[in-house]
């Protein structure tokens, strides 16, 4: 398994999980700082490492009318402030080569969205940035084929790579998680993360927005930990029902600590077997 650091966080951890958590989209400074304060407090109290995530822009929306962001530079400056103020590494999505060039100066991790995981120029540019790269597995991709996506990044000389399972298309407006994909992706030699919230989506099933089934959050996340993931990705929001994106699947901020502690305990049990 390739090991590397993001800030002071070792990927993978020798013992336990790491978390990638934060709002789906940077909607404004106050909300981002509220989430960051809660997550950084949890990390300090428990010793469980957290990478803060937030999209500076949402390029993939169900409807043209959907909110896409507060402005690229404004959102990226908020991410940089989170990193400086709370001492957490930060992650954001990139959608094209220009995004890589723009975002690289503000964040620690570039994330390749699932629908773009085969885009060669984007993967190469992300690798050449020298930053850590998290590649979401496409809903249409076989897990073993993700090693080909990783190779496009690694060919730049950058092997600071994570692969994230986020569900597979199962007919229209539905996803299913095949947990055989966790060990299959791990054979690539890169850390595997489970996206606990996007895996709950019902894509475009909400009359122009993505719906979801948040009630399955814990059982699926537990299954992922039992299957051997190194990290958990989860979107959190102070008031998910009022979120400008992924309102049906984001975790209420106040519930994140309990959710993360439970999974950390389970990971300890799994590692003791």
UniProtKB/TrEMBL annotation:
Segments forming domain DAHP synthetase I/KDSA: 8-271
Its EC number(s): 2.5.1.55
Keyword Cell division: no
One Pfam entry name: DAHP_synth_1
Location (main, coarse): cytoplasm
Reactions it catalyzes: D-arabinose 5-phosphate + phosphoenolpyruvate + H2O = 3-deoxy-alpha-D-manno-2-octulosonate-8-phosphate + phosphate
Pathway the protein acts in: Bacterial outer membrane biogenesis; lipopolysaccharide biosynthesis; Carbohydrate biosynthesis; 3-deoxy-D-manno-octulosonate biosynthesis; 3-deoxy-D-manno-octulosonate from D-ribulose 5-phosphate: step 2/3
Gene Ontology MF terms: 3-deoxy-8-phosphooctulonate synthase activity
Record localization: Cytoplasm
Superkingdom of source: Bacteria
GO CC field: cytoplasm
Record-level GO BP terms: lipopolysaccharide biosynthetic process
Record keywords, A-Z: Cytoplasm, Transferase
Record-linked PANTHER family: PHOSPHO-2-DEHYDRO-3-DEOXYHEPTONATE ALDOLASE
Family stated for the protein in its record: Belongs to the KdsA family.
NCBIfam families xref list: KDO8P_synth, PRK05198.1
The protein's name: 3-deoxy-8-phosphooctulonate synthase
Organism of origin: Prosthecochloris vibrioformis
UniProt lineage: Bacteria, Pseudomonadati, Chlorobiota, Chlorobiia, Chlorobiales
């Amino acid at each position: 398994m390739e090991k590397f650091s993001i800030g002071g966080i070792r990927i993978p951890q020798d013992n336990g999980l790491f978390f990638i958590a934060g709002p789906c989209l940077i909607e404004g400074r106050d909300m981002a700082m509220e989430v960051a304060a809660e997550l950084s407090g949890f990390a300090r109290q428990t010793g469980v490492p957290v990478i803060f995530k937030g999209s500076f822009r949402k390029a993939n929306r169900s409807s043209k009318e959907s909110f896409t962001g507060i402005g690229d530079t404004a959102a990226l400056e908020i991410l940089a402030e989170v990193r400086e103020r709370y001492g957490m590494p930060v992650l954001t999505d990139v959608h094209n080569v220009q995004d890589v060039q723009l975002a690289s100066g503000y964040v620690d991790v570039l994330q390749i969205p699932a629908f773009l995981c085969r885009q060669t120029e984007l993967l190469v540019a992300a690798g050449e940035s020298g930053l850590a790269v998290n590649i979401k597995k496409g809903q249409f991709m076989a897990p073993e084929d993700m090693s080909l996506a990783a190779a496009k990044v690694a060919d730049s000389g950058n092997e600071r790579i994570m692969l994230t399972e986020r569900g597979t298309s199962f007919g229209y407006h539905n996803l299913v998680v095949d947990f055989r994909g966790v060990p299959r992706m791990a054979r690539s030699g890169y850390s595997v993360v489970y996206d606990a919230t996007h895996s709950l989506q019902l894509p475009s099933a909400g009359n122009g927005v993505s719906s979801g089934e948040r009630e399955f959050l814990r059982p699926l996340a537990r299954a992922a930990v039992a299957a051997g993931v190194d990290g958990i990705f989860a979107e959190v929001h102070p008031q998910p029902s009022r979120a400008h994106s992924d309102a049906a699947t984001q975790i209420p901020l106040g519930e994140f600590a309990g959710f993360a502690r439970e999974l950390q305990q389970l990971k300890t049990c799994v590692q003791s077997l």
